[in-house]
Amino acid sequence: MGIFERWLTLWVALCIVAGIGLGTLLPGLFGALAGVEYASVNLVVAVLVWAMVYPMMIAIDFGALRDVGKRPKGLIVTLTVNWLVKPFTMAGLGVLFIGHLFSGWIEPARAPEYIAGLILLGAAPCTAMVFVWAQLSRGDPNYTLVQVSVNDLIMVVAYAPIVAFLLGVTEISVPWPTLILSVVLYVVIPLIAGVLTRSALIRTGGLAAVAAFGARIKPASVLGLLLMVALLFGFQGPMIVAQPLLIVLIAVPIVIQSCAMFAISYVWAWAWRLPHAIAAPCALIGTSNFFELSVAVAIGLFGLNSGAALATVVGVLVEVPVMLSFVAIANRTRARFPA
Questions:
Q1: Is 282 exposed, middle or buried (0-12, 13-18, 19+ CB in 10 A)?
Q2: Cα(329)–Cα(98) distance, rounded to whole angstroms?
Q3: Contacts of 139 by beta carbon, 8 Å cutoff, 6+ apart
Q4: What is the mean pLDDT of residues 104-123?
Q5: What is the end-to-end Cα distance of the chain in Å, rounded?
Q6: Which of 94, 106, 275, 280 could form a disulfide with 115 if both were Cys (CB 3.0 to 4.6 A apart)?
Q7: Residue 170 above 50 pLDDT?
Q8: Phi, psi (degrees; rounded to nearest 5) at 41
Q9: What is the DSSP letter of 288?
Q10: pLDDT, tens digit, for every residue of 25-41?
Q11: d(CA 77, CA 260)
């Protein structure tokens, strides 16, 4: 591991502090960056996601994808946690903490909106950042691609009904342009670029050329992650400074939910004796969230300044440091899994 990866937690912490500070001092700049979007998808963030995802896409061997069906257990774990466990436990934790345990510190009229935001967050499995977590844990890129693709297909038909049921409403307006554009930007475009690059490298130098090129561009992936952390925290800097206690209260059920989902997925994968290259991404996919979609839906349903929108943004704030801690756990426990 290079110096950036070895000290990644420290770099992320520094980027969080820098992002909050710059966002507070230069709100106009970050406001302008936040406005560079289409269909509620921030294009600056999209570029940074490309930098993170592209190196892993180059490693994908489509010839090996046909063998994924021979190993369905990882898919079963991920899909069960993402669609049968995670949305409902997040709703329960939201009601427990926001509606009851923290009710003395939270404005009663706003509590239902915070709970709604947590539901929107918990029902949206991650699409783009999963590739980063899988790469950092040395996961199987082919299997990770299949898991993300299957989750995307299910999300198109299942997200709205699950959220509608949990919110107790009959209809929900999901911003489909945001969902489709996010998948295209964060998965399809980097995948096409990776496939074309891999084909060109194999023609000129074989698999050795692929490995050498991947090693050269790997620092760009880490740099993209760090810049995105600084950017996201810069967007929310003034809010974090103005309402630190509320941010912490909303973060508590999100962190508990993340720990529980990772533990369930990782232990289940270990019990099924899955190889670590499948078990680690499997647990990480079952833990992280598609925050771009959840933020957009919260804004569309409840408004930009609503409690629901705030709750989904808090999910963005805790996503990176929490997921990095799970990546570290996965890497330290590699020897407990089959090779």
A1: buried
A2: 29
A3: 133, 277, 278, 280, 281, 284
A4: 90
A5: 19
A6: 94
A7: no
A8: -105, 120
A9: -
A10: 998 888 888 888 776 66
A11: 14
DSSP state letters, 75-110: HHHHHHIIIIIHHHHHHHHHHHIIIIITTTTS-TTT
The two tokens of residue 189 are 């475009």
Q: Is residue 174 within 8 Å of residue 297, measured between CB atoms?
A: yes
Tokens of 319: 């996503």
CB 42 within 8 A of CB 295: no
CA pair distance 197, 47, nearest whole angstrom: 18
Tokens representing residue 13 in the block: 């912490």
pLDDT digits (tens, 9 = 90+) for 272-325: 999 999 999 999 988 988 776 787 778 767 776 678 888 888 887 788 789 989
For 276, the token pair is 């670590």
Neighbours of 318 (CB within 10 A): 18
pTM, entire model: 0.79
pLDDT tens digits, 31-88: 888 888 776 667 887 788 788 778 877 877 766 666 666 778 988 999 999 999 999 9
Helix residue ranges per DSSP H, 236-290: 237-242, 244-271, 276-285
Alpha carbon of residue 170 to chain centroid: 28
